[in-house]
Design goal:
Layout lengths: L3 H4 L4 H27 L2 E2 L7 E2 L3 H8 L1 H34 L4 H13 L2 H11 L6 H8 L14 H25 L4 H9 L4 H12 L1 H16 L3 H6 L11 H10 L4 H26 L7
Antiparallel strand pairs: 1-2
Helix pairs in contact: 2-14, 3-14, 4-8, 4-11, 5-8, 11-14, 13-14
């Protein structure tokens, strides 16, 4: 412990964070840099790599399917995040109001999050089957027309959103429940003395006090939605008619089915830029509105 490094207090902080920097460089910075390099080449995973400059990005800009894929990604992300946050907040408020069976219902709420997403997707493939699925049988028994849950281009993307919401809403609800239970009770007691309505208490006390948790969950859910892959791969494979094809699934398909690694790398770089820009704008716009106690 008498080394020069440890005696020099100016170098000690850097020595302490050095292991984390090494891991960050190996598992994050190097893959990002290598992906950026790959985007400038044409490569099929077998033959030699051919430098083509920015041709992959030019092809992306002129590809009409890429615009559709980008639109699908945005629609999926916005719809999934809004539903997860609203339903999760509603469930958290309901669970917080319970005096009996709260623990049991919390376990039931969290249970879908324990099941593997691939297994969940396979179950919903059966439930949403057009001819023999349970959903359409229930609709038929009620005298309603059948729905092409996974075969109708106008419905398939929202069916995938339904699966994702069912899978992830429980975890969000329990995290929000923990935030609700950390709010000091004297705030609600003071509001009750002022005859504040439940809606006023929600708007003036509850939402501001849990805003850090809402801020965090929204960001995590957006990034997670941009990376959605398992449900698409298992349930629709991007169909019908490319209506459920998203950026992350297109990257996989271009790289590992069509062996266009450079083109897939260019798409991955675009996805990283989109997520990065969203994260920066999100922090700049909303961080000042978060109420930190």
């Amino acid at each position: 412990m008498n080394s020069t490094l440890l005696r020099d207090h100016r170098l000690l902080p850097y020595a302490l964070i050095a292991p984390a920097i090494v891991l960050l460089s190996v598992f994050y910075l190097y893959p990002i840099g290598y992906n950026a390099v790959l985007s400038l080449f044409s490569w099929d995973l077998r033959g030699p790599m051919t430098f083509i400059g920015f041709d992959n990005f030019a092809e992306l800009a002129s590809d009409p399917d890429f615009g559709l894929v980008l639109r699908n990604t945005v629609v999926y992300t916005v719809t999934e995040v809004i539903l997860v946050m609203l339903i999760g907040l509603g469930l958290a408020l309901y669970l917080n109001s319970l005096r009996r069976f709260g623990g049991f219902l919390q376990a039931v709420t969290f249970a879908p999050n324990v099941v593997a997403l691939v297994s969940v997707s396979l179950i919903f493939v059966w439930l949403m089957d057009t001819d023999n699925g349970l959903f359409n049988q229930l609709l038929a028994s009620a005298g309603l027309p059948e729905v092409g849950w996974l075969s109708d281009p106008d419905v398939a993307l929202f069916s995938l959103v339904l699966v994702s919401v069912w899978k992830s809403v429980g975890l969000n609800a329990l995290i929000l429940l923990a935030a609700l239970r950390s709010i000091p009770t004297h705030l609600f007691e003071a509001a009750a003395l002022d005859n504040a309505s439940p809606f006023t208490q929600l708007r003036r006390i509850t939402l501001p006090m849990i805003s850090p948790t809402l801020f965090f969950l929204t960001l995590v859910n957006v990034i997670g939605s941009f990376q959605a892959f398992d449900t698409i791969n298992v349930m629709t494979r991007g169909g019908p008619r490319n209506s459920t094809n998203t950026l992350i699934f297109s990257i996989y398909r271009e790289g590992f089915e069509y062996y266009r690694v450079g083109y897939a790398a260019a798409m991955a770089l675009v996805l990283m830029v989109i997520v990065g820009i969203f994260t920066i704008v999100y922090f700049q716009v909303l961080q000042k509105r978060v109420h930190y106690r």
